[in-house]
Structures are given as structure tokens and as C-alpha cells.
Amino acid sequence: MSEEFKIEIVNPERSFLSKEDVTEVVVPAFEGEMGILRDHISIISFLKPGVIKIFSKSGEENYYVEDGIVEFKNNNLSVLTSSIFNIKDMDKDKISELLKQAEVHSSNSEITDQDKYLVDQKIDVLKTLN
Amino acid sequence: MATLDDLKKRIASVKSTQKITKAMKMVAAAKLRRAQENAEKGRPYSEKMNNIILNLSSGISDKENAPKLLSGTGEEKIHLCIVLTSDRGLCGGFNSNIIKKAKAYFKKISEEEKTLKIITVGSKGYDQLKRVYKDNIVEKISFKESKTINYLDAEKVGKLIIENFEKKEFDVCTIFYNKFKNVITQIPQEQQIIPLKTSEVEGNSSDDNYEFEPDEDEILSNLLPKNISTQIFKAMLENSASEQGSRMSAMDSATRNAGEMVDKLTIEYNRSRQAAITKELIEIISGAESL
After folding, report:
1. Which end of chain B has fewer beta carbons closer than 10 Å to its terminal beta carbon, N or C?
2. Where are the domains positioned within chain A?
3. Chain B partners within 8 Å of A118 (Cβ)
4. Which pTM does this prediction carry?
């Protein structure tokens, strides 16, 4: 039996990525990283800032996301996100720019606890990428 | 009757107007194609979003404690209307169609003696509404600087709406925009986004048993604000395609009208020139006869 399933990543502007031969995907779900294999139970969850890892026959791909929703159903994984970048395309300048924005946001005194948690997550992830 | 010189000048000016409208039509046609592509590309996101929300809200256990964005505040006293128009004119009935639709709704609201608040997106809408509804307009937004429709702009509007909702500034939120059907038809739309009418959400609800992580309520309260931005973004995309379509057909008929006018003026010009020649001939002949 094949172990592949389909992944589709869409952002509001276009369909970002669509692949049919994925064997494993690791998404940064809100309550911790979650690995998805074929025939996973139907699930809906949302993402925190982190890295989506996609494993397929052609190799491994990494994408940085800031937020989003994942839905897995009938071996179709859909990721809806408004901010996603291929890590290969992210250079140092881009990362430090995002990091700076996040730090400014984090030091804002009116930030809610949940936002603070998310922004701190973002800073951690960006620091490891940098 | 106008002199020959006047006619000549008029013909020249109509011809140059025609050149401009023709160029505008070409530009609109090129932009329309891009806008249409963008609208199509944006569709999967909003469709998927709708499906997920539908699945979530049908699975929600506790209707009483459902997020307010979904169930409403329980009152219907203050209505917020988001009117999405273009920043540029010369696009036929595009803006006035939205305004007409919105005004009909405003009238209904004021007849029911409810409070009306308006946010205009796009400067043309503000220009048309400020005369009558100046006191109702709480905010005017314009994205003149952004060359393309982008999600960040929509998110700004979305955040503004959520902020106001959390401050309990309004109970019901409706957006007005033009839905793009084809180049000659754009349908003005009125869509309620808060509270969300789940019955109106298109898509097929499935009876799949989803696992939720974290639970439904938390996902919903995270997702609904995003859905607002998504709906605004969808409306903006539809609007921009409609604007270009409307401009294209308006400029097309303007070009045709200018062509007709040039024809008419040319005939008039030729006739009066001929009349002048004939008059001169008669003068010469009758002068020669009298000798």
C-alpha cells in the first residue's frame, strides 16, 4: 500500500504549494509539533509560528509559517496560512527584519497573553533559523 | 452656425478624447485579466476557510457560549456597514451601483430607528456618501498607495472591525461590494459578516468526525477573526475585477460614442465648407453677369 498523501498549502492570494507524493508532514500545531502520516484521523488544528517540514520522495522541504489552520481529511492535508516563506528563499536580512518586527511587537506593553506567547514563539523560531 | 474653424477644433478635440478613452480601455482590459486571475487564485482559500468554519460551527457543542462573532451580541441595535468602492473614477456605474445598494440598506436601518455606522473603503465611496451621511461615517480608508490588492490591506480592515466589535461599538456588520459576473455585468452585493450567517455559507457540510486540537471553541475564536479578513479580501478581489470590467465597458462605449460624434461633426464640416464654396461661386457668377 502506498504511503503517500496529498498536501495543499494555500494563502489568500494563491495556491502556494500542491504536492501529491508526500510521505510525512510535521506541522507546528498550537499545542506542539504534530507529525502527520497517511491515514491520520480527520483533524482540524491551528498553527503557531514555526516550521512546516514536508517529506516526500523528492526530498525534504521546509517552510516558515507565522499562523494558519490545518485540516486533514481523507488523506488530504490543507494548510491555510496568510504568511508563509520557503526557508530556502529566506536570507539573513529577511530573517533579521522579521525578528526586529517581532521584538518590537513583543515589547509592546498592551499585548495580550496569547499574542505574547505567539510572538515569543516567533522570536525563538527566527533565532534558530538565523 | 459654427464657423469652419470652430468645427475643425471640435473634431480635433473629440478625436483626442477618443484616443484617451481607447487607451484607457486597453489598460483596463489588461488589468482586468490580472484582476480576474487574482480573484480565481484567491478562491480556494476562502472556500476552504468556509468549509472549515461550517464543519466547526456544526460541531460546536455549547451554542450558548459560542463566540460572539458567530452568534452575535444578542442585540441588533447598531449596524456597521463597510462600503467597498474604488479609488478612481471613470468606471461607469460601478461605484454608484454599490452606493445605491448601500443607501437602500441605510434607509431601512434608519426607518427601523437603529443606529448606523459607516466605514468607507476607497475614496469614491466617501465622496458620494459624505454629503448625506457625513455624521455616520466613522472611518474612511483608502488604499491608493497599494498597486495591487494584497491581503495585508484586507487584514487592516479586518482588524479594525474586530477591534470595534470587541469595544461593543456595533452589533451587526454588513459589507457592500460588487460581485464580478462578467465584463458587462457586476452585481452589487450585500453580505452580513457579523454575526456570521452559517446558513448562507456556501459549501457542503460533511458529517465527518473531526478531531479538534485544541477544542472547537478555541479554534473557532481564533479562526473567526481571520475569516473576517478573508471575506474582506474576497470582496476586495471581486471589487477590483468588477472595477476593471466596468471601466472597460464604459470606456468602450465612450470610444464608440466619440466615433459617432466625429462622423457627425465631419459631415457638418464638409457641408458647411461646400456651402461656403457654393456661396462664393454664386457671388462670382452674379458679379460677372452684372457686367
Report:
1. C
2. 5-86, 90-129
3. none
4. 0.85
